[in-house]
Amino acid sequence: MAIKKENFSRRDFIKNSSMFAGGVVLVSLLNPLKVVYATKKPKGKGKWYGIAIDIEKCIGCANCARSCKAENGVPNEPFFFRNWVEQYTITNDDEVKVSSPNGGIDGFTQPVSDDEIYKTFFVPKMCNHCAISPCTQVCPVGASFESPEGIALVDKSYCIGCGYCVQACPYGCRYIDPAQGVADKCTLCYHRLEKDLDPACMMACPTGARIYGDLNDKTSELYLFIKENNCAVLKPQLNTKSKLYYKDLSQEVH
Amino acid sequence: MPIQVKRLLVVFAVFIGVMLGLKYFLTPESWREFGPYRGKALTEIADQEAKYVQMETCAMCHDSIADLKDQGLHISIQCEICHGPGYRHVEDENIDMVIPENSDFCMTCHAINAARSTSIIKQIDAIEHSEGEDCISCHNPHEPWL
Predict the structure, then answer these.
(1) Over the stretch A93-106, which tens digit does the pLDDT of each residue have?
(2) In terms of residue numbers, what domain contains A206?
(3) Which of B3, B31, B45, B69 to mutate to test the interface with A (most CBs of A within 10 A)?
(4) What is the CATH number for A131?
(5) What is the value of ipTM here, to two decimals?
(6) Domain spanning B49-99 has what CATH number?
(7) Are A56 and B41 in contact (CB < 8 Å)?
(8) Fewest CB within a 10 Å sphere: which of A104, A105, B26, B39?
(9) Does residue A188 belong to any structural domain of this protein?
């Protein structure tokens, strides 16, 4: 079935190649190979959870980190966190220092004297529950997924513990649970939300710096907070469509 | 059709058949209920026990303390921030809650730090203020005064 070279004219070549190119365009329009999966924001009434953090109100008490560890059985050793607090200190020499002793649980001590500080503030960090989350897209077995409410979750009985998602998360919000050897992360206390309780970190915040709610509900506290305040997400250039909004976020935070 | 192409087609058909069979037997139940994951994982995660019972539950028995606290400056603070998760205590009252007596616990919020807004939280240097004496020997955390 080889092509006879003497019969292969220029006209044939152009015809065949334009047919091939047209076919490729047609197939790409039909989009059958759409592998990247992301849960869509539900139209109508479905819940679509988001979080907002008021940086000015955070006092760095780390009750959020403590209560999260107690609620979700996160190992107590350092480096295993579902949420934690960082203190950013920018000195008069434009040096940015970030400290987070045991995620803030051990208490913060100021690294520089007060008159050297240009500005300083606390930044609580947790899973951003991205709408296009890199961590769920890299999972080879489908154990990391986004719930219909937009919460990024791990199916711990299905996870093989390869650690891809831990590397893929640009915010460092995942860890491998040392007891089970599988990935684990913030669930926005999905089990508490289903029981009409607040997530542990939201409950534990003494100053109300943390707000969570339904971004689909135009009367929710969260929706109005984002509307009325100047809010930004972390690493917007990565197009993860993060749903964790920080009020008055400084550009030094990454 | 040449014989080698026929043989190749048979090999392809067997391969596709085996893969479809494997997919049928190895795909877990409730897969693709909501998306490319086990739909049952959602109920499994939702079934976990909630350990923090929240203040409304505490106030069902400890109503006088809850009322006292709600009149003071610590109104926004949930009981379980200081006393620890209450899910065991709710079932069996003999299981004690945590009662933090050390001033270090108070200092997780009230220590002086330049990053803390003074309009949001009162801060104090504990050593200078009380020379190491416990905060609760003068202050009642349920009814704090300045």
Answers:
(1) 999 999 999 999 99
(2) 49-247
(3) B45
(4) 3.30.70.20
(5) 0.89
(6) 1.10.287.3080
(7) no
(8) B26
(9) yes
